[in-house]
């Protein structure tokens, strides 16, 4: 298992470019199943989860040419409707293949998806299954190991999400796009990755109205074509780097990003005293007076404070003056990682599984740590960069799932970070 060795306290400055969004790439790759024509994807992040997605598609019979951050996918010759359990078990994104497979082949067999251990009961998929039933499919769970979904014919659905779910919204939107009937989805997620996917599908002949709002109306088509999709900048990587610069009091320019997608974070950083300016595709953080003023947050579906930025933000609060209540409303276990931050010297009180209070500023000291999930992983990297002494972070596969070439990019702005196999 590889690990990062980080010697903290170095001055960071320079430029860092943001990769394409993991949570956009993991949806456009399965979307290749919606058409039998060749799709080209540009600005792909070079991360593990993208490799895992291509592995699953190849196993289904797709022909993929993947060079760096570009790929073409040909699914015309697809000959398998069963997701490979070993491959699909490695990441949450594997669930994204199910909807398009069902819409195209009227049947699909798949295991419960893998991924981070942050949700209750292993990342439930009840909303997906309810949605597929609403389209007229029969869902069978076989001995708690895998699911069989079959449909004689699929029809449009009127489905109201009892809970806002990003991937469930994307899955049902993709499924509906090639069921030649009318579908209305209500209480949808509104993330930018959903809007980007809908815009692409509409240029290929789909008819999806209302993406980015709570209600989507989809006039499904017999077939749609395929073209070129450019993955949007990763807003979570952008936010992680902005928070890193603020925590390290660095002069850092973050490029190839879209500041509009992290306005909630930027508003809060301004409130707590971080100096930054931003333009259309860049954010410049400049070092300034310290300490910052602590400010509480409540994570919320987009456009609220992103749950994926909660972990890095907690590290920033350990360096801010005063107390901050951090309320994680989306996931049940996404604050457990803060125990490791306390071991580094942070003053954190866990009020209940969804709330912690941070008290700062406190000095952090290097420790031997394990990355539980990718966003806690990047938070531990940020903590290690500002801590005194040496930190070891194990299980960095979790970090590689979402942050490409991290040690190279952080090393280039002055960090003392090394990957050890
Ligand atoms: C997506 O996960 C992202 N992953 C997550 O990013 C992100 O944290 C999350 O959205 C919230 O923004 C991808 O896009 C691949 P949800 P998703 O369904 O769709 C519950 C990262 O770090 N739920 O919006 O799985 C669920 O347990 C990852 O990049 C059900 O109960 O999240 C959670 O409590 C981590 N039943 C809540 O909904 C379901 O069928 C919201 O989760 C589905 C979800």
* Rg estimate, integer Å: 21 Å
Q: What is the CA–CA distance across the termini?
A: 6 Å
Q: What is the CATH-assigned architecture of the largest domain?
A: Alpha-beta prism
- Note poorly predicted spans: none
In terms of DSSP E residues, the strand content is 25-35%
Biggest β-sheet description = 5 strands, mixed
Number of domains: 2
Q: What compounds sit in this structure?
A: ligand EPZ
- Average pLDDT works out at 95
Total helical segments: 14
CATH superfamily (homologous) name of the largest domain:
Enolpyruvate transferase domain
Helical percent range?
A: 25-40%
CATH topology assignment of the largest domain = UDP-n-acetylglucosamine1-carboxyvinyl-transferase, Chain
Kindly state the number of beta strands: 24
**Which CATH top level class of the largest domain fits?**
Alpha Beta
Instruction: Using the alpha-carbon principal axes, give the shape.
Output: elongated
Protein structure class: alpha/beta
How is the secondary structure organized here?
Blueprint: E1 3-7, E2 13-17, H1 22-31, E3 39-42, H2 48-60, E4 63-67, E5 70-74, H3 85-88, H4 98-105, E6 107-111, H5 126-134, E7 138-142, E8 146-150, E9 158-160, H6 166-177, E10 182-186, H7 192-203, E11 208-209, E12 215-219, E13 228-230, H8 235-247, E14 251-255, H9 263-272, E15 275-278, E16 282-286, E17 292-293, E18 297-298, H10 310-317, E19 320-327, H11 338-343, E20 347-352, E21 355-360, E22 368-370, H12 374-386, E23 390-394, H13 397-400, H14 406-411, E24 416-420
Parallel strand pairs: 2-14, 3-13, 9-10, 17-19, 18-19, 22-23
Antiparallel strand pairs: 1-23, 1-24, 3-5, 4-5, 6-8, 7-8, 10-12, 11-12, 14-16, 15-16, 19-21, 20-21
Helix pairs in contact: 1-2, 1-7, 4-6, 5-6, 6-7, 8-10, 8-12, 10-12
The protein binds ligand EPZ.
């Amino acid at each position: 298992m590889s690990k990062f060795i980080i010697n903290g306290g170095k001055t960071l400055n320079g430029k860092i470019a943001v990769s394409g969004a993991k949570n956009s790439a993991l949806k456009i790759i399965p979307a290749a199943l919606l058409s039998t024509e060749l799709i080209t994807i540009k600005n792909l992040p070079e991360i593990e989860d993208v490799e895992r997605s291509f592995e699953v598609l190849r196993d289904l019979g797709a022909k993929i040419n993947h060079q760096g951050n570009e790929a073409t996918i040909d699914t015309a010759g697809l000959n398998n409707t069963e997701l490979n359990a070993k491959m699909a078990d490695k990441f949450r994104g594997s669930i994204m293949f199910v909807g398009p497979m069902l819409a195209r082949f009227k049947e699909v067999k798949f295991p419960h998806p893998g991924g981070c251990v942050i949700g209750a009961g292993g990342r439930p998929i009840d909303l997906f299954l309810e949605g597929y039933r609403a389209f007229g499919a029969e869902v069978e769970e076989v001995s708690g190991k895998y699911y069989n979904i079959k449909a004689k014919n699929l029809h449009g659905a009127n489905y109201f999400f009892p809970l806002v779910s990003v991937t469930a919204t994307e899955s049902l939107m993709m499924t509906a796009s090639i069921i030649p009937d009318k579908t209305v989805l209500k209480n949808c997620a509104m993330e930018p990755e959903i809007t980007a996917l809908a815009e692409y599908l509409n240029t290929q002949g789909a008819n999806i109205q209302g993406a980015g709002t709570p209600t989507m109306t989809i006039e499904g088509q017999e077939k749609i074509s395929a073209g070129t999709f450019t993955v949007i900048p990763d807003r979570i990587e952008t936010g992680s780097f902005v928070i890193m610069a603020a925590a390290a009091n660095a002069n850092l320019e973050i490029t190839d990003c879209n500041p509009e997608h992290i306005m909630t974070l930027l508003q809060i950083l301004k409130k707590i005293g971080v100096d930054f300016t931003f333009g259309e595709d860049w954010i410049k953080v400049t070092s300034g007076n310290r300490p910052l003023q602590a400010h509480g947050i409540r994570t919320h579906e987009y456009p609220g404070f992103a749950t994926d930025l909660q972990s890095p933000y907690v590290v920033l609060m350990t360096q801010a003056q005063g107390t901050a209540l951090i309320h994680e409303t989306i996931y049940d276990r996404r604050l457990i990682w803060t125990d490791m931050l306390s071991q580094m010297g942070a003053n954190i009180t866990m009020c209940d599984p969804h709330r912690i209070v941070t008290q700062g500023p406190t000095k952090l000291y290097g420790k031997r740590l394990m990355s539980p999930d990718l966003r806690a992983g990047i938070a531990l990297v940020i903590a290690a960069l500002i801590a005194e002494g040496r930190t070891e972070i194990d299980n960095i596969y979790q970090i590689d799932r979402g942050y490409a070439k991290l040690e190279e990019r952080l090393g280039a702005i002055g960090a003392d970070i090394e990957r050890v196999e």
